[in-house]
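Subject: Sanity check before I submit

Could someone independently write out the structure tokens for this chain? I want to compare against mine line by line before I put it in a report. The sequence has 335 residues.
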Amino acid sequence: MNKVLDAANSIVHVNEELKELKEHGDLEYPVGTYLVNFDALYTGFVRWHWHDEMEISLVKSGRAKFMINDESFILSEGQAIFINHNVLHSAYPIQDENCVYISIVFQPFFLFGHGQTNLAATYLNPIASNPDLRYMILDGTKKFHKDAIARLAEVFSLNLQKSFGYELHTRSALSSFWLLLLEHLEPSEAFSIQEKSAQLTLDEARTKKAILFIQKHYSDTISLDDIAFSIHVSKGECCRCFKRSIQLTPFEYLMKYRIFMAAGLIRENKGLSIAALASSVGFNSSSYFNKLFKKYMNCTPTEYRMNVKKNTHQTADYNGHDLSWDNIHLFIGAM
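---
Independent answer below. Compare away.
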């Protein structure tokens, strides 16, 4: 049965299309509930990923910045965000503030059954099949937000306690939450400009393909020309696709991915010198590698290695669980 997981289990593993690999719950009970503590994550943030399930995140303490494609939102304690299925998203804390949030991930068929039933056509499709409804912010600015957030807290509590019948109570609470969303959908919220949605879909496809190219060749000498050529667009359009999709340039993504891979080598205790470590992930300059490592990881490679040795038990916990947007770990995320 499903269980509430802590941050060590909430790391996101993905495939080459950034789709999360983790199964949330099972066929009988397709619900996953998670407590995400940024301070307990070795990267300090949740990487870009997407999944077939719906996701709802509720901030318990601190503040978090959620990124949905080309948009970002800062949510404070007691605020939440609904993220539709198949939507790229990531999250990270604000500056040095610690943040803890609840994440509830579930399959729509848990509420409406499999296939195109009348229930699905009436209650599911207006949200799930709307390509323009990628998210909804629940920040208390509308009266129904309080009731919707109360349903989310109820779901988390139910799955934490697991009393008799908690699965049925969870379905009831999620159904109530879903009905609140439907009853309060407004045209301005439910439908954005069609052209923007089409552009984002094309950008996502191109960006995913370019990221796959980067992940395969990150240790080689890669130029912007190479990345743009891999998706058959100009350098300018390649940069615009990345910016519109994940708010990073191709070069920024490449650098962060290289640093993340270097951190992985350190955690695997390969025993490489700093120069060899830099070279193995595509850097010609050890000093530049050190500079970027400190920028993205908030410590030098040497300090990171020492911290890993001190916390080998914690590192083992992290490496023993799944992540999401490539079989390795994505290191994109606004930092």
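---
OP: Matches mine. For the report I'm noting this point. The beta strands are 4-5, 31-37, 46-49, 54-61, 63-68, 71-76, 80-83, 89-93, 100-106, 135-138.
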